[in-house]
Amino acid sequence: MAQRRNQPVLPESGADLARTMRRRLVSLYLLASAVGTGVVFTSVGFVGRLFLDEAEVDRLGRLNAVGIAAYVAIMAPLGIYAARRYNAPIERWLTSGEAPSEVQRRRALRLARAGVSITAAGWGLAAVLFALLNLAASVGFAACVGVTILLGGMTTCALSYLLTERTLRGITARALAAKPPSRPVALGVRGRLVMAWTLATAVPLLGILGVSVVALARADVGVQDVAVAVIFLAAVALTVGFAATLFAARSIADPVASVRTGLASVEEGDFDVEVEVDDGSEVGLLGAGFNRMAEGLRERERLRDLFGRHVGREVARAALTDDPELGGEEREVAALFIDLVGSTALAAERPPAAVVTILNEFFAVVVDVVESHGGLVNKFEGDAALCVFGAPVERACPAADALVAARELRARVAQDVADVDFGVGVSAGRAVAGNVGAEERFEYTVIGDPINEAARLSDLAKRRPERLLASEAAVRRAGDPEAERWSLGEAVALRGRAADTRLATAPT
């Protein structure tokens, strides 16, 4: 089934699985053999009446019953010995709790197939022996006995495989978890459907065909005997065939449904999901392929998240949507620059770990406030941060966004990070936004006079009681109602700028 990765996929212990394997294999073998033996014994009784008189049928029935008992008494221990010999490496692996060797893994994946091989050998030998045992009575009857036993063996083998493959999937899942399959290692969809068809159609139809041929060839065959034989074979087709078809269908439908459930989780954005791979056929390859896909999506999402944390989520989204190139475009932006006061003294007075903690608390507030107003924290520069509004995503009024964020940022930093002092500067205007660097390594940045002016205003704000200064250009671009919150003051010459900048302040 589909489940989250942190949920246990294989809840049973290896020792529990080993005990389950021993118990279920014996139970399944007995069940399948009982069904096959019942079909054969009853069919031989019906067939005998088509060839022999009543007294001879009774005599051969007793003879065959003794023969079956003797054959089972001899072959059952041999079959159990062969099965245990095959299963011994699997049990050692399961009880050890260690990863399986290649031999152990291969045997575990071929467990159902090996059981069928042992069963088929027993039934094939039985067909030969019992045909010879009944040869003295009638060549035709002996041939029918041999063919009937072969059909019963087909029934037993097919039913045994479908039951074993279905009920021992815990071992298959554990073996495949150690090494996901690269190619099918078990009977596939086509083979299982053929098995189901064999039980539901082929064996009963061959039996009916045989009865019909005998009835046409022998004039003394009674209609009632033919009808009883046909009714019996039809009942076998309905019961055993239905059970086999049900098991075959579930062995295919359940893994596919599990993958579909996992896909639904992925469609909803939950990539932390895995499908339990407990089938060694192409159906299992489908589940393994889904797990590889989910792992790739998780890795992609992790890289997307890390990329967004490093460069900003909007920059990351733009880079993933469009093919990033060197260069930029001119656009209307607003810049917010915030810088700490006395960071050098802070580093000298406190341990480095404490300084880093304070900076992280400070920058957490900056990121929260700026992103809540549609801005991008473009750079962390030591103890300062450059925030941009209007790039890479255009804003209706980047200047208003920046001014609102600056006022909120001043209040939040003073409240949440009481150990620091700071200065905030805001400017707005035309700037170039784009990728700067080389083809092998570049970064998204914004270059222009508003950026420089915001940095100079931040430096000046650190010496003013308001701790927040904006340029007249930013306030005028913001428009009402944000402009009404700001008061224009004197014009000053900022370092590195030819023209004076008229200052604007907002009351606390």
Please report the total strand number as a whole number.
Answer: 10
SSE-based structural type: alpha+beta
* Main beta-sheet annotation: 8 strands, mixed
Classify the beta-strand content into a percent band.
5-15%
Percent helix among the residues? 55-70%
How are helices and strands ordered from N to C? EHHHHHHHHEHHEHHEEHEEHEHEE
Mean pLDDT: 79
Number of helices: 15
How far apart, in Å, are the first and last alpha carbons?
59 Å
Overall form: rod-shaped
Indicate the multimeric state: single chain
Rg (C-alpha, Å):
41 Å
Stretches where pLDDT falls below 50 for ≥5 residues?
A: 6-11
Q: In the residues, how many domains can be counted?
A: 2
Outline:
The chain has 508 residues and is α+β, with helices and mostly antiparallel strands.
Explain what the structure shows.
The chain is of the alpha+beta class. It contains 15 helices and 10 strands. The protein has helices at 14-51, 54-96, 102-109, 111-133, 139-167, 169-178, 189-217, 223-267, 282-311, 313-321, 343-349, 352-372, 398-416, 449-461, 472-478, and strands at residues 2-4, 273-275, 327-341, 376-381, 384-389, 421-438, 441-447, 468-471, 487-492, 501-505. A hairpin with a 2-residue loop joins strand 6 and strand 7. It is rod-shaped, with a radius of gyration of 41 Å.
Q: Which short descriptors sum up this protein?
A:
Alpha-Beta Plaits, 508 residues, two-stranded antiparallel sheet, alpha+beta, 65% helix, 8-stranded mixed β-sheet, 15 helices
Task: Annotate the secondary structure layout.
Layout: E1 2-4, H1 14-51, H2 54-96, H3 102-109, H4 111-133, H5 139-167, H6 169-178, H7 189-217, H8 223-267, E2 273-275, H9 282-311, H10 313-321, E3 327-341, H11 343-349, H12 352-372, E4 376-381, E5 384-389, H13 398-416, E6 421-438, E7 441-447, H14 449-461, E8 468-471, H15 472-478, E9 487-492, E10 501-505
Parallel strand pairs: 6-8
Antiparallel strand pairs: 1-2, 3-5, 3-6, 4-5, 6-7, 8-10, 9-10
